[in-house]
Amino acid sequence: MDFELDAEQIALRDAVRGLLTKGSAPESRSEVASTEPGWDTGLWKQLAEMGVLGLPFAESDGGMGAGPIEVMIVTQELGRALAPVPFIAAVAVAGQLVAHAGSTEQRADILGRLSEGTAVPVFAHVEPRSRWSGEAYSVLAEQDDDGWRISGTKEPVPYGAAADILVVSARVDAATRLFLVDPEQSGVQRTGYRNHDSTRSARVAFSAAVATPLGGVDAAAIADVSVRAQAALCAEALGAMERAVDMSVDYLKTRKQFGVPLAAFQALTHRAADMYVSLELARSMALYASMALAEGPADPVIAARAKLQIGRSARHIGQEAIQLHGGIGMTAEYAVGHYASRLVAIEHSFGDTRHQLGVLAATLTDHDVVDVLH
Amino acid sequence: MDFELDAEQIALRDAVRGLLTKGSAPESRSEVASTEPGWDTGLWKQLAEMGVLGLPFAESDGGMGAGPIEVMIVTQELGRALAPVPFIAAVAVAGQLVAHAGSTEQRADILGRLSEGTAVPVFAHVEPRSRWSGEAYSVLAEQDDDGWRISGTKEPVPYGAAADILVVSARVDAATRLFLVDPEQSGVQRTGYRNHDSTRSARVAFSAAVATPLGGVDAAAIADVSVRAQAALCAEALGAMERAVDMSVDYLKTRKQFGVPLAAFQALTHRAADMYVSLELARSMALYASMALAEGPADPVIAARAKLQIGRSARHIGQEAIQLHGGIGMTAEYAVGHYASRLVAIEHSFGDTRHQLGVLAATLTDHDVVDVLH
Amino acid sequence: MKLQLSSDDAAFQQRMRTFFTTEVPQEIRDLIAAGRHLSRDQSVATQRLLNAHDLAVPHWPAEWGGQDWSPLQRHIWQQEMQLADVPPPLAFNINMVGPVIAQFGSQQQKERFLPPTANLDIWWCQGFSEPDAGSDLASLRTTAIRDGEDYVVTGQKTWTTLAQHADWIFVLVRTDPDAPKKQQGISFLLIDMATPGVSVRPIELIDGGHEVNEVFFDQVRVPAANLVGQENRGWDYAKFLLGNERVGVAPTGQTKALLARAKSYAADSLADGTTLLDDPLVATRIAALENDLLALELTQLRVVANSEEGKPHPASSVMKLRGTELQQEVTELVVDLAGPQSVASFAGDDSELPEWVKVATPTYLNYRKASIYGGSNEVQRTIIATSILGL
Amino acid sequence: MKLQLSSDDAAFQQRMRTFFTTEVPQEIRDLIAAGRHLSRDQSVATQRLLNAHDLAVPHWPAEWGGQDWSPLQRHIWQQEMQLADVPPPLAFNINMVGPVIAQFGSQQQKERFLPPTANLDIWWCQGFSEPDAGSDLASLRTTAIRDGEDYVVTGQKTWTTLAQHADWIFVLVRTDPDAPKKQQGISFLLIDMATPGVSVRPIELIDGGHEVNEVFFDQVRVPAANLVGQENRGWDYAKFLLGNERVGVAPTGQTKALLARAKSYAADSLADGTTLLDDPLVATRIAALENDLLALELTQLRVVANSEEGKPHPASSVMKLRGTELQQEVTELVVDLAGPQSVASFAGDDSELPEWVKVATPTYLNYRKASIYGGSNEVQRTIIATSILGL
After folding, report:
1. What pTM does this model have?
2. CATH number assigned to the domain comprising residue B323
3. A31 domain residue, yes or no
4. Are residues A352 and A287 in the same domain?
5. Which residues have a Cβ under 8 Å from the Cβ of B60 and sit 6 or more positions away?
6. Which residues of A lie closer than 8 Å to B, measured between beta carbons?
7. Rounded CA gap, D253 and D323, in Å?
């Protein structure tokens, strides 16, 4: 049992952190997000050159063959920097879907281009009126002599207006299947917009759009990749929370009011202490999620456990970070509000707190105690 | 709209407070509770002489003809003093059941003796495995040629071992009916014990015990009196919370640590401020419950609203009062722990917080907003 | 004790309800209900409508348009306005500068300013906060130096709400830097925003909106006739103003209206084949919030039903603290109801997401301010601890 | 990074589990599981059994019975003990005075005291707290004045846990009242409770139990040979002791075991024709608590898996604070599960209430102490704010 990074992992962390430190500040996020594609294309290229975009994919697919720990390291750094890149959407979600479900050719093509930074795939899955689940509801796929056609609307689709490749979930009879759709066809209509967290999304409407099945009929891919996505989101949130706590502590030390630093007010320092507790509990669970993935099959219960804690810590820390900053924390010119906003978005992606509680409540009778030592 | 007591009500409050101030201190409660009957018989007599025990009953039944506001005033004072008397059990619950459901003769007899302080009736209703509800489950009543017989076990029955008259809920076919049972008969076996809050309860086992129906078959009486009991419990809790907050504030002012009064620690004074908020919210709802009763029919939804707030405030204030006192708050020699203990008991009587939430959740679609002004 | 309204008050309530739900244009009320902001013109038109019906400044002195209402009636007026999604008259005008001018201004100032202030012919903004002051308002640094018939004002204000719409600003300025205490030597000035040397810089907030501003004063010449009351007594007027501010500070009606809408959102949201309102976790959360709001409203009613004029009820300090907590909790609930779509706050008109989903998160983020502005909740706790509990 | 146990550690875990679940008498474990207290004899017998199997003092130096275990193995030992409802060895002996004597005591003291301390032949109690000190431990007033070969001790200790069972007490006394700082001039003494002048007064707690005491010292003559380490250096030893105390301070295993029982209580409680465990509010509350405990246990594992000897891991300060919060939340849950019967705490043997219902509220009330004793949670927050966050 060992919770520390090894030397190679530390080197990866330092390299990514070094790159991001040179990048744009969190408070300039909204500018990047205000137009398509909504990400920092220069930074994306640099991440590709560093090999980061191919991190979790097999070398035979053009990737680096690294594992969940490395994805965790990268997303945690992206979270710390609030870096405006679609790493989760393209690599952790869509890329891993292709890696898990795609045919050899599909993997080599899409993951190769993704790893090189020349194509961004995203997962078009959430529908305008769906809660989080692994199912498609109103988007339907039909087969005729010419192949498959997809109709219906997905929204919000992360970076859906600028993505080069859409992985689309669609209903076929009672089942949900995955398809690849080229967005540059007349049957696909896309409207992009900025999200509150200065990422971008799109409404993507399909009218008998030409689609290719992703690999075979691997319904487990969504569940499996959801677990991986949640682990990555937990790590990103951890990075964001680290910075939100750091900034709040620094502010208490330096900001003066009534002639003394805010740190002289015990009511504030005790609340900072509670934020630290939230952070450390979140850290433990974020590590747990990725370590469990690195050592065993994707377990949705472990993902729910981690995401539940991260959701609660994120809400607590996001709210308190703004409150301890006072008015300045409310402004877009200052970074802390951007962290809070991103934490809200993460909490509501891939299953919010209420969803995770439901998942866990359903498992209560499976065990006497939750065992972690084995 | 007026939330203040009138002159007569203030006089009642002052008279009861004056009497209780001369009585025993809260921290001597456990001594009184350690033996039967479990209440201060001298104080009970004085309350009878003051007319308090007949307060809510019609003058024709031997009572004072006062209303819910007066009951609220008395129970709030009893709560402030943690007075060791069975006022809620005997007057607010069993007495009011008799008043609502009893025949003219039953009312005159029982309420007359109760008002004089010569007999204590209690309600034997909760069963060893029941949650809070208005129903009897395992205690059954059967009729033969000689009349009614009751069998089964009620537990815990407040002051059940010392009570002179038992009002018993029992199942008759699918319905719950009320009966009067003389505990001094061979078919009734009683074992009394002290409760954690220094009241007393008993296991009361009935084996074909002779029983007399209480009045007609008024199934509504339990629901109606539950509402009245909840209003009284809210008022008692309010009194207890007032004292718990006062004591905590006094302690912060007087207790020194690290060379300064505890009141110098902002983390503590801000928590005291939150206790005050809890107290004032509880006060508003306790007043509401009794005022609504005084002006209209017994409304279980209003009772649930009040009891929900009181339950939450009671838990918050009880826990914080002990915490702010530190070690001394843990001791039976000091009053604050007794207040906390009594608040726990009130929260779990006549429907706990979870129960009240359930009642209210079921009403959500009945209204857009909760209207109080009308 | 009496819970029910008197027949007079009940009739008053009915009159208010009827006016607000029938006389105020539906499209204005729909915008408020949708959580959207009004344009300047819409705000002005609405306040003028209220003022035309003597409903804009009921708490002002009678000679300036006030009504002889009891505190309870004023509360009913406010509740019914909020429950009907009617935008309230501009607080800077009717709760802040108006009462200060009416109480402390010269006769000339009253005649010049009060009628257009009530009618929103003048849009006021508030110049109190400064960048380095925070909750310590009295440490302000903007100076006003007397020069002939003018004051020359130099300095910077911040968090100035809707300064971009404002015609005039009322400011606290330091007129005596040598006063022994920081609360002394402060004066209360009225400044025309069109005066040379006044400039406004927008501050973008985390919800993406433009609500507050920085206001800069660079050698701005202000006629001495625009001094309210006495020089160096401005802190007294500010305290008077802040005391008034707190009365209307718990918008329980507005929060109730939002919670009622949240309930309809939940009933309209499908989850696993049923609606979110059928989910016991959601239903009990809403029930608890309804109850929390009721407890707060009853506390507010205790204050208004039994308050002597001018004497603050001890429970009033609870209102700001608890009122903002509940406001925030309800906005938090709405984000959770919006679920995975809650991210899409700036989706356009062709989006298939309901309008409420789009405003959910910006509203949540925006209302984080509620526990910061107007005396942070930490300041409120300190007030309760010291003024009420004597700690 | 590695989540799974090494095969050695897994085997170690299995060995512990087997021992605790098969070698410790079932009736002892049942008492603990029922939330009841052991008699003195039962506590002594259990610790002697553990000691006989080298499982009482694994963290002591090897020459005094310690085992060469990693911090992770010690954690496993403790977890398995708690999960099996085995009463832990007396903390005053094994975590407090034992390590102090082993580290700072004379060879003679070690030989005299350590073996009977490990075997619970001597039952120790702790004399640190005083009535006027509270969290400010160093302000203690009990004096020890040197008189020939003895110290003469006079003063009062309080909150002395299980002093009624104790043979000996270790106390902090003031030996130099003129020391410039209150932390100086304190010494660490070992006192036989049978010495003339020592008296014990029980303090009844709000759960009705007798767990703590006041201990009075009236001119008690203590041989100077019973001084541990150097005179006036006692504060250093106390800090060493308190540092050790914190390691075992989050009994996650015990809280997990109680929560598992709570789950069975809920499954066994009928409510409206179904069980409480089927109630979504109860089920999600339990699920959330299980998760909270998991997060805490993982944090604890981060500390033990990667801690250097003697160097405290930053996350360790989280343990006491969060550990006691969860302990309290689980006891709170059990009271709520007990419902209307939760009042009947002292019902006798013929009662028809389940045993767990009877102990529910006393346990809840008793565990209010958890956030007070051993450094209150306010003290823990201050430690986090200052030592970790640098505030």
Report:
1. 0.96
2. 1.20.140.10
3. yes
4. yes
5. B108
6. 265-267, 269-270
7. 10
Residues 6+ apart with CB under 8 A from B136: B125, B127, B169, B170, B171, B176
Residue that terminates a domain, selected from A73, A103, A119: A119
Reported as a single tens digit per residue, the pLDDT across C165-210 is 999 999 999 999 999 999 999 999 999 999 999 999 999 999 999 9
Contact between A308 and D291 using a beta-carbon 8 Å cutoff:
yes
CB contact under 8 A, C391 and B270: no
CA nearest neighbour of A202 among A159, A163, A146, A236: A159
Question: Are residues D2 and A266, on separate chains, in Cβ contact within 8 Å?
Answer: no
Q: From the CA of C270, how many Å to the nearest CA of chain A?
A: 7
Alpha-carbon gap: B135 to the closest alpha carbon of chain A (Å): 30
Q: Least CA distance to C282: which residue of chain D?
A: D281
Domain assignment present for residue B370? The answer is no
Do B77 and B132 belong together in one domain? no
pLDDT tier for residue A28 given thresholds of 50, 70 and 90: confident
Distance from CA of D355 to the nearest CA of B (A): 12
- Chain A partners within 8 Å of C350 (Cβ): 191, 203
Looking at the partner chain, which of A133, A257, A329 has a beta carbon nearest the beta carbon of C136? A257
In a domain, B374, yes or no: no
Fold (CATH) for C249-388: Butyryl-CoA Dehydrogenase, subunit A; domain 3 (1.20.140)
Phi, psi of B256 (to 5 degrees): -105, 145
Residue of D136, D159, D206 to mutate, interface with B, max B Cβ within 10 Å: D206
Q: What is the chain D residue with the closest CA to B322?
A: D368
Q: Is the pLDDT of residue C246 over 60?
A: no
Name the residue with tokens 């007087």. B254
Domain at B48, CATH number:
1.10.540.10
**Domain spanning D124-232: CATH superfamily:** Butyryl-CoA Dehydrogenase, subunit A, domain 2 (2.40.110.10)
**Does residue A371 lie within any of the structural domains?**
no
Interface test with C, best of D281, D286, D336 (most C CBs within 10 A): D281
Per-block mean pLDDT, blocks of 10 residues, chain D (391 long)? 95 98 97 94 98 96 95 93 96 96 97 98 96 84 96 97 97 95 95 98 94 97 98 94 66 95 93 88 98 96 76 74 96 98 96 96 96 89 94 94
Same domain flag for B205 and B226: no
Q: Which of A119, A142, A161 is the last residue of a domain?
A: A119
Q: Are A132 and A352 in contact (CB under 8 A)?
A: yes
B240 plus B352 within the same structural domain:
yes
Q: Which residue of D has its CA nearest to B337?
A: D206
Q: How far is it, in rounded angstroms, from Cα C374 to Cα C137?
A: 11
Which B residues 215-254 touch D at CB under 8 Å?
none
Identify whether the C-beta of residue C50 lies closer than 8 Å to the C-beta of residue C16. Answer: no
Find chain C residues with C-beta within 8 A of B309's C-beta. Answer: 291-292, 295
Give contacts of C279 with chain D, Cβ < 8 Å: 280
| Probe site for chain B from A258, A265, A266 (most B CB atoms < 10 A) | A266
Query: How far is it, in rounded angstroms, from Cα B231 to Cα B293?
Result: 8
Instruction: Determine the straight-line distance between the first and last CA of chain A, rounded to whole angstroms.
Output: 10
Domain borders along chain D are: 7-89, 124-232, 249-388
Q: How many domains does chain A have?
A: 3
pLDDT at B257: 85
**CATH no. for residue A147?**
2.40.110.10
- Any idea which residues of C carry the catalytic annotation? 245
Using CA atoms, how far residue C309 sits from B2, C56, C304, C346, in Å, is: 15, 20, 10, 46
Q: Where would I find the beta strands (DSSP E) of A228-330?
A: 256-257, 260-261
**A273:D385 CB<8 A:** yes
Provide the residue range defining the domain that includes A202. Answer: 123-216
